[in-house]
Structure formats: structure tokens, C-alpha cells
């Protein structure tokens, strides 16, 4: 361990996570026993205040146990990493581009609620409103673990603000989530397999945006993976970030292959792949957000679109883990 600093750091991080988990469970057990004992004493003494305080403490303990249960699900190889999140509008012009912009705001608000740091790496504005695509970098512990089940197609049903006849429209946009690659993970990419294009950035930025080809797009020809970055004023910096994004996409693709092999089921990818609808957001004629994988629903779409997503994410994580477990059982049988 002393001869390999990176391995030592990895081992110490693992030890710290295990230590926190074990101590957390022990603390929950102790607090549970203490509050049950307080309730029993309060009932014996006829002290309603003691009983009420202990019951409130048990409610808080239940919430803490639920939080730790979710954290226990975030134990995948890259779950603790920062993450990229891409938004792409579907067919439908202004309608889907506006919906993509709403999704971009939704995930930005969710990340802010989680106290994650959010950076907008690139955005392609729509012709009239909304966006064609955008890429966020979300930084924080377990950022990828939380967001990884959000990949897929999101469907919106509403009365269109762009339709003078006030008709109901259905719009689709896609989300793609992949982890930031840790420095200790080596991803080999042949530069000869890639095409690099430069172009002028879009959006705010003043004269510099309009006069220099600072934005960078890299296409990995064998896989068709495309990444782009226009965050920095310097083409050199954008190129470096784009290479980081490409390595992350290649790493995510490898993680998905491993997951499919471990689950021994082709359906494991469909939950998170392109072209598969995972959630519907209905604003008219009724109000409902429903996850089609887990059945979790909310009748407050305004709250969901403002970043209240944890219930959906927790259910999707549990669904994925139970699916993996079922696949292993089927394999054994």
C-alpha cells in the first residue's frame, strides 16, 4: 500500500465509506432503542410530553433510515463520480425544443436542491424558443449514482403556448447521463478514429462568440458517439473538456456492457437507452407525472418540474437493483 499512493487513497476511501455505513446503522439502532424506552417510560409515568417528543424523534429517525437506504443503493463502480447530463429535443420543432429547455431547468433545480455544483458546458438554442441540445456537468458525491436512471425519453402532454388554437400537443425529449471518468481510470481512444470539428459558439458571450471558432465537436467514428463543448472562450480548453467527455461516454458504454452481462438480460439496457419512454408529464387535460418503469406518480407536476425528483429516482434505483437480483436468481435456476 505504501508503494502505490493511488491504491492507498482508493482503499482509504472504501474504508471510510464502510466505516460511515456501519456507524450509521449502529447509531440508528441505538436511537431506536433509546426512543422506544423513552415512550415506555413516558407511558408508565403518564408524561405525554416525553411520549410526544420520542415519537417525533422516531419520525425523524425513519427519514434518516430511508436516506441511508437510498445511499446503500449507490454502490456501483462509478456511482460516487461527478456526471454529465445531456438534453436533446426530439422531433417536433419549437414544441420539443421548449420541452428540452424545461427539462434542463428541472435537472438544474434538482441539482441545486441537492447542493451539487452545476456547470453548463454547451447549449444549442432553438430557432424560436427553447434549446436543441445542452450538456450539464453536475459535481457532487454520488451525482452519477442519483442521476443514472434518468436516461431515456421523457414525454410531455400540454396545451401548447405556441398554438394559437390552444390545442393539446405531445412532445418528446431525451436525457443521457454518463459519469465523469476518474483520473485513475485509463480509457484508450485512437485519435485516428475521431473527427474533430470547430464552430462558433451560440448563446450569450458578446463579440467573441461571433468572431472565433472556439466550440469543439468530437465524433468517435467506430461508435458514432458525439460530444461537444463550448463553455470556455479558448478552443484549447474546450477541446480538452470534449476529450474528457468522450472518455466518459466510452467508459459509460463499457459499464452498460458489464451491467448487461451481469444481469444476463437484454432488457436491462432498455430502461436507460435511447428511444425508450421512461416518464410522462401530463399538464392537460389532467395533472400527473408517472414513471412507466416503477409506477411512481405525482399529481403535482409543477413541483416535479421545479426539481422535486427524489421519489422517482429512489424508486428507479430500487427497481434496477431488484431487476439485477431477479436476473441473478434466474441465472442460477
UniProtKB/TrEMBL annotation:
Write out the PTM section of this UniProt entry.
Answer: Methylated by PrmC. Methylation increases the termination efficiency of RF2.
Q: Where in the cell is it found?
A: Cytoplasm
Which keywords accompany this UniProt record? Coiled coil, Cytoplasm, Methylation, Protein biosynthesis
Q: Where is the Prokaryotic-type class I peptide chain release factors domain?
A: 200-216
Per the record, residues carrying N5-methylglutamine are 207
Entry keyword Ligase: no
Q: Which NCBIfam families match?
A: prfB
Q: What does this protein do?
A: Peptide chain release factor 2 directs the termination of translation in response to the peptide chain termination codons UGA and UAA.
* Protein name per Swiss-Prot or TrEMBL: Peptide chain release factor 2
Species source reads Rhizobium freirei PRF 81
